[in-house]
Design goal:
heterodimer, A: 331 residues, two-stranded antiparallel sheet, 74% helix, globular, B: 267 residues, alpha/beta, Rossmann fold, 4-stranded antiparallel beta sheet, 10 helices, 10 strands
Chain lengths: 331, 267
C-alpha cells in the first residue's frame, strides 16, 4: 500500500516551500516598507509616529503573548518606564544626544522586565496575568509618587534634540524616518526571533509545556528570555513615544494601557507578525476619529464592543482570519 | 547479573493524607524491557511522574547508575538520558512532524537560546529528522502539521521524538493506549526496535503486549508492589488475578485479567 518514498525528495520539497514562504514574506515587507516611506507625504507625520510607536508596543507584547503564550497584564509598566527615563534624561542633561536617552529608557525597561519575569514566570495562566498586573500597579504608584515624573501633570517639554548630535529631530520628517527605522529594525528582529532556533523551542513550549520539559528544556529560562526581550521592545516604544510627543504621562503607566495593547494584539491577530501592527493602526485611528466627533465620550464603550465582537466572532483577529481564508482557498 | 540502570528506594508519594505510592522499591536492569502493570489507580503513572520528577516524592530515593538523582529537576533528568512519553499523545500539534523531531534534536545541538540566528541554521538537523521519521514509517508526513495526523501516527511520532533524544532509559506510559489492533502490532515492533541497546520501562494495560515484549514485570496494587517476576510467574500468581478481576467489586474497565498469552495471540 505504501508507495516508496524517498526522504531526500520530501526534504527538498520542504526546503523549497520554506523558500517560497520567505519570498512571500519579503514581498509583503517590501510593499509595507514603500507605503511607510511615502506615508508622511499623505498624512500628518506625528499621527503616523503615534501609530508606529503603538505598533511597536503591540509587536513587543505579541512576542510574549502570541509566541510564548504568556498573557502579561502589566506591559504598561515597561512603556512608562522607557518613556519616563528617556524624558527625564533628555530634559535634565542638555548635551545628551537623543539616541542615548532612548537607549537608557530601553535599558531601564529591560531591567524592570527581568525583575517582573523572575517574580512571575513560575505562575501559569491567570495567576501569571495577576502577578504581572500587581507588579505593574506597584510601578504605577511609584510613578504617581515620584517627584521627577511630575505626578498627575506628567513630564512636559521633553526636548527632541539631535540624533547622533547631527540630525535635528525637531523637524517632523526627520523624526518620522528615525521612528520608522527603529520600528522596522524591531519588526525584523521579532520576525527573526520567531523563526530562529530559539523561536522553535518557544513554539514547542507554548504548544505542550510538559513535553518540552521531558525533552530536557528548562522552560522557565526560555520564557524569561521572551519576557525580557518583550519588555525591552515595549520600553523602546515608550522612549520613542516620549520623544515624539515631548511628553511622558501617567496614562502610559495605567493598567488601561496594558488592556489596550491586549486589544490591539487580539484585534489584529495574536501570534501573527503583522497582526499587532494592523491592530494598533486600527485602534489609534478609531480613537482619533471618534475623539473628533460627537461620539467623543463613547470611545471606551465602542472599543469595548469591538473587543467583545472580536473575541466572540473573529478569534484569530484580522490577519489570522485572512490567513485562514487564504489557506482554505489557495492551497 | 547485569547492573541496575535505575533504582528506586522506599519511594513514597502522599497527596494530603492519601498515599498514592507507598514505599516502593524498584530495580530496572540494564538492557531489559520492564513492565509496570496493575489496575487503574494502582499508582503506575504516579511512579512515572516521580521517577521523572514531574512530581516531587514525599520520601525515598532515586538512583541512576548508582548516582542519586532525587534532587534533580525534570529537564535535567531528561538531559541525563531518562526520557519519558506521556499517556495522552504528547506532540507539538501546530508544528510539522519534522519540526517535532527537530525540537528534540535541538536540546543536544546547543543553539536553543540563539534568538538572533536564522532558522535555516537548523537545516543541518533535517537529515537526522528524516531518518528518524523514516524509521517509524512517517517520512511522507514530514511536512504535515501534527494535528492532522491520525492517532496511531501521532503516537509513532512521539516515539520517534523520544528516540531523537537517544535516551539510555526509555519510560513509556501506555504506548498502545486507545489503539486498534493493527496499530498495536506496529507499536510493539517499534518498541522492540527502539529497545535495542536501551533499557525500557513501560506502563501497559494490554497484557498481550506485555507478554510479547517484556522480560520483567512489576505488578502494582493500591500504590504498593504486589509481586514481581517474568510473565509466567506473574500471570500464575493468584493475587494478581484477584486484583485484576476485582473480586471485591473494585475492578475497572480497560484492564484485562492476565491470561495465557497463547489464548490471545494466535500463532
Amino acid at each position: 500500500m505504501n508507495q516508496p518514498v524517498n526522504p531526500a525528495d520530501i526534504h527538498k520539497v520542504i526546503i523549497e516551500q520554506q523558500k517560497a514562504r520567505n519570498r512571500k514574506k519579503m514581498m509583503v515587507n517590501g510593499v509595507l516598507f514603500l507605503l511607510l516611506l511615502a506615508a508622511p507625504f499623505m498624512m500628518y507625520p506625528v499621527f503616523l509616529m503615534k501609530i508606529l510607536c503603538f505598533a511597536l508596543f503591540a509587536v513587543a507584547f505579541n512576542l510574549l503573548f502570541g509566541f510564548a503564550g504568556l498573557l502579561s497584564f502589566g506591559h504598561a509598566a515597561f512603556l512608562a518606564a522607557g518613556g519616563y527615563t528617556t524624558g527625564y534624561l533628555l530634559s535634565n542633561f542638555a548635551g545628551l544626544s537623543t539616541e542615548l536617552g532612548i537607549l537608557a529608557g530601553t535599558a531601564t525597561a529591560t531591567v524592570l522586565g527581568l525583575a517582573f519575569a523572575l517574580l512571575s514566570i513560575r505562575r501559569q495562566g491567570i495567576y501569571f496575568a495577576m502577578v504581572t498586573l500587581a507588579l505593574a500597579q506597584l510601578v504605577f504608584f511609584f510613578f504617581v509618587q515620584a517627584e521627577f515624573t511630575g505626578g498627575e501633570d506628567g513630564m512636559h517639554g521633553i526636548p527632541r534634540g539631535h540624533l547622533l548630535g547631527l540630525i535635528n529631530l525637531e523637524d517632523n520628517l526627520n523624526m518620522y524616518y528615525f521612528v520608522l527605522a527603529v520600528f522596522i529594525g524591531c519588526y525584523l528582529l521579532v520576525q527573526r526571533i520567531v523563526s530562529s532556533p530559539y523561536g522553535q523551542v518557544l513554539k514547542a513550549i507554548k504548544q505542550n509545556e510538559p513535553r518540552a520539559v521531558s525533552l530536557g528544556y528548562n522552560v522557565d529560562r526560555y520564557k524569561v528570555l521572551a519576557f525580557v526581550i518583550s519588555s525591552a521592545l515595549a520600553g523602546l516604544a515608550g522612549s520613542m513615544k516620549s520623544v515624539v510627543f515631548q511628553l511622558a504621562s501617567l496614562n502610559d503607566a495605567h493598567w488601561h494601557m496594558s488592556g489596550e495593547v491586549i486589544l490591539m494584539t487580539l484585534l489584529g491577530g495574536m501570534g501573527t507578525l503583522l497582526g499587532p501592527v494592523i491592530g494598533a493602526t486600527f485602534v489609534v485611528n478609531v480613537e482619533y476619529q471618534l475623539s473628533q466627533g460627537p461620539l467623543r465620550d463613547w470611545v471606551d464603550p465602542i472599543l469595548g464592543g469591538i473587543f467583545v465582537l472580536t473575541v466572540l466572532a473573529f478569534r484569530s483577529g484580522v490577519v489570522g482570519e485572512i490567513q485562514k481564508l487564504v489557506d482554505r482557498n489557495f492551497k | 547479573m547485569t547492573r541496575p540502570v535505575l533504582e528506586a528506594r522506599n519511594l513514597t508519594k502522599e497527596f494530603r493524607g492519601f498515599t498514592a505510592v507507598d514505599d516502593i522499591d524498584l530495580l530496572i536492569r540494564e538492557g531489559s524491557i520492564h513492565a509496570l502493570i496493575g489496575p487503574n489507580g494502582a499508582g503506575k503513572t504516579t511512579v512515572f511522574n516521580l521517577l521523572t520528577k514531574f512530581l516531587q516524592p514525599t520520601r525515598g530515593q532515586i538512583l541512576y547508575r548508582g548516582e542519586d538523582i532525587t534532587p534533580l529537576k525534570s529537564a535535567a533528568i531528561a538531559r541525563k538520558g531518562i526520557v519519558r512519553s506521556f499517556q495522552i499523545s504528547a506532540v507539538f500539534p501546530h508544528m510539522t512532524a519534522l519540526e517535532n523531531i527537530r525540537v528534540a534534536l535541538q536540546t543536544a545541538e546547543g543553539s536553543s537560546f540563539s534568538f538572533w540566528r536564522s532558522g535555516s541554521t537548523l537545516h543541518k538537523l533535517n537529515d537526522r529528522c528524516m531518518e528518524l521519521l523514516d524509521s517509524v514509517g512517517l517520512a511522507e508526513f514530514a511536512n504535515t502539521a501534527t494535528v492532522e495526523l491520525a492517532y496511531g501516527r501521532k503516537r509513532a511520532l512521539e516515539l520517534a521524538t523520544t528516540l531523537a533524544m537517544d535516551p539510555k532509559l526509555l519510560l513509556l506510559d501506555e504506548p498502545t493506549q486507545g489503539m486498534g489492533s493493527e496499530d498495536v502490532d506496529r507499536v510493539v515492533e517499534l518498541v522492540r526496535k527502539a529497545a535495542q541497546g536501551r533499557t525500557v520501562l513501560m506502563v501497559e494495560h494490554n497484557l498481550s503486549v506485555v507478554s510479547k515484549l517484556c522480560d520483567r514485570i512489576t505488578v502494582l496494587a493500591q500504590g504498593a508492589v504486589l509481586t514481581e517476576g517474568d510473565y509466567q510467574t506473574v500471570s500464575a500468581d493468584p493475587r494478581v488475578r484477584e486484583v485484576y478481576m476485582g473480586s471485591d467489586g473494585s475492578g475497572e474497565r480497560g484492564a484485562e485479567p492476565p491470561t495465557d498469552p497463547a489464548e490471545e495471540v494466535a500463532p
